[in-house]
Amino acid sequence: MISIDEVYSLDGRDSIKELERSKEQINDLNVSNSELLDLADDMFRVGSKSHLRSLNPLIRQDLGLQLQYMTRSDAELQSNYQELKNKYVSLGKSFSSISFLFDLVSQDFTLLDIVLMHELLMDDGQFRTNDVYIQSADGSKQIFPAVDIEEKLETLFDWYYSIISKESISSSVIATLFHYYFVVIHPFTDANGRVSRLFLNLILIKDGLFPIVIPDNIRKPYYESLVAADSGDFAALVDLIAGLQKVKTDEYLKLASELSALEQEIDCLVLTEDGNTEMIEKLLEFHDFDLNKTAIESYYGKDNIASAVFLARKMKEKNTNVKHIIFHRDRDNEQPQKLKQTLNKFIKGNGLSNCSTAFITKLYDMESYFINARHISETYPQIELERSEELIELATVEASEVSKKKLRIAYFEYGKFGKIADPEERSIEINSLYESDTKQYRYGKEVLFELEALIAREIGEPEKVSLVKKSQYIKIEEFRNVSSLLNNGNT
User: Fold this and answer.
1) What is the reported pLDDT for 329?
2) What is the 3-state secondary structure (H, E, C) of 380-413?
3) Both 159 and 198 in a single domain?
4) Domain boundary among 362, 394, 415
5) Strand ranges (DSSP E) for 223-331?
6) What pLDDT does 265 receive?
7) Do residues 341 and 376 both lie within one domain?
8) Which of 184, 216, 250 is the last residue of a domain?
9) Whether residues 10 and 131 fall in one domain
10) What is the pTM of this model?
């Protein structure tokens, strides 16, 4: 295990100092620990598909009690374990693991809790009995022997509880090291990374920090930092985890600052996942919103929706002139009913049900509203309706590869490929799904871009035209309802 002097050295890195400064700024906002914990829970559920990616899609029929080796000598322990397992597993795999994790925030977690988490996720809960290995890109193999696994984990817990008692050490450093050593022990046949990252987040959340995920675009440096740690160099891994945490805290602080600075005269607040707010501003204008009294703010990505709802509630408590709040999420390749249900849960949990609207786009994104043959023919009368439909079809074909790529990523995130590992078979699966309903799965931004270029050529314009114009065919029910309420003086 790493020495205490090395831990203090890592704790002194600039990345940790910057994170601690951001944490102090959050503390200065005077948000209670219970409020932050509720927010972390909501944030975790929003990102559950990332936290719990690649869950085993096959539910084993004969679960039994897999922990005889740990509980056989204690009937009460065995009974308590089974009762806990039944309590959480009844909630469903993903949310049961999250509920269990957050129940551990207020108590000391143990080795048995880790094994229970593995059983909740994988229907297993057994330490492996065979050696396993991971093969690197260069062909080298790292072997994890199946020797003294339980003893190694107990040593890890002894280290954790000795180091966590030292208040001066950042929880980010401790969580990173715990995560690394757990992966090195590799106690289970599968899902070691997932379980270790769940408990990494548990340690962060216990200290009032937000949960993080490892985005796809930094998976490579993440694995490279793990390899460097194998040689005793933990700096890159500590910096990476602290950096992800700082991004999350800074996004929260930025939105909190922007909402606190809103002018008192506004009567409507619109929070959107899009960094570029021009599209939603146009759509609001087309639905007769008074933009002088409407504030539009980005919450910087769909995974921050829980923060957006929470901070909107804090803003509403201070600015009583705000009559209504709209929360926007693109449907993307997700189920709109499920998205709306989740968003409404956050809204209700923050006491905003009477003054808020959850706006989930009908199709992939906001741009999709303008991919409408009647809208095209009204906007450009020289193009007949039938030809407008043909142009939409052509633009859809032009954008199909980008649309399929988006669908492939979503399919992977949800673990829907199951046992399909062959790239060609996966491609067939995606093509079949996309062709079954191109209107649903096409990527609106790319289709609109191609469509505007096609229309420009069709009408002889030298430059790409715009379809982002008002017409009687651009109708969003949620916007019409809120506009009516505001213009009629109601809340």
Assistant:
1) 95
2) CCCCCHHHHHHHHHHHHHHCHHHHHHHHHHHHHH
3) yes
4) 362
5) 268-272, 294-298, 324-329
6) 83
7) no
8) 250
9) yes
10) 0.78
